[in-house]
Amino acid sequence: MLTELEPGIYYWRGGVNFGLLVGADRQLVLIDAGLDASAPRKALRPFLEQGYRLAAVVATHCHADHIGGAAELHRRFGCPVFAPAPEHLVLEHPELGGALLYGAYPPPTLQGKFLQPQAPCPVAGVLRPGPFAVAGLTLELVPVPGHSPGQVAVAVGEVLFAGDSLFLPEVLEKHAFLFMVRPQAYLESLERIAARREPYLVPGHGPHLVRRPGHDPLPEVLAANRAHVRGIQDRIRAALARGPMSEEEVLLALARQAGKAYDSDPSYYLDRAAVSAHLSDLAARGEVEPAYPEGRRCWRLADSSRGHGG
Ligand SMILES: [Zn+2]
């Protein structure tokens, strides 16, 4: 379903949202490209019939559900595809998507279309935060790393396409662990979103937010995201207070608390990567450290965090 937020600025509300911008001379720009090209094709059809053409795809980040359709759109329309560094490499080398989760070349179970694009796509240019001119439009790219290494939000007119820099409370409730690679960066990106003033915010998943003076839903959404990150880190500290645990033991302890049991590689490895990211954050802050009891790789609370100097 296509929603027009202001003249020439649309978004497609689906399993994953994407933006559609009308530029100069009947040029169109897509912000993200969907899990595959079927939804973008539907969104584009009425415009193409009126002589518009797809001039570019701009990716907020390179998770498969946001850029899976890029290769086909590029093939069909010859449009350049732009993506932020360093994750643009996943567009050109899809196997990196699974490898980032697995830590090595991914097994077949981690090469599905939800985890990595199914065909490589050439990247015409790497996006950096700041102004980006395309199709007669000037987009402002706002750095929002954390969920992915180099994600950007796209501000244009009165709309902020936030990608997966934040998740709506109804999405948070369904996920024991939000996927993220750097929780501290995720929290800092939330503050960058908090400082924005666009009246419309389009998240990567779920309905858009309308921010009006006296009725602004954004602060509550941001608070729920902060609480999610802090809640996980609190639960990790509490688990490790009982003694050293392997990364998998930490994951399973937290999953059990959330009533979750794993039965497939994608959900196991996505959550495991998120928990690993939180542990890296805690290690960077000196709160946890590696330990090898009986040769087993574990995490334990650092001396200062255990609070008894021994
Ligand atoms: Zn994502």
* Order of secondary-structure elements: EEEEHEHHEHHEEEEEHHEEHHHEEH
Share of β-strand residues: 15-25%
Structural class comes to alpha/beta
Largest sheet: 7 strands, mixed
- End-to-end Cα distance, whole Å, is 60 Å
Q: What's the CATH topology label of the largest domain?
A: Metallo-beta-lactamase, Chain A
Total count of helical runs of at least 4 residues = 11
Oligomer: single chain
Number of strands: 15
Helix content: 25-40%
Specify the overall morphology. Answer: globular
| Whole-number tally of structural domains | 2
Which ligands appear in the coordinates? Answer: zinc ion
**Which CATH architecture of the largest domain?**
4-Layer Sandwich
Q: Could you give me the name of the CATH homologous superfamily of the largest domain?
A: Ribonuclease Z/Hydroxyacylglutathione hydrolase-like
Name of the top-level CATH class of the largest domain: Alpha Beta
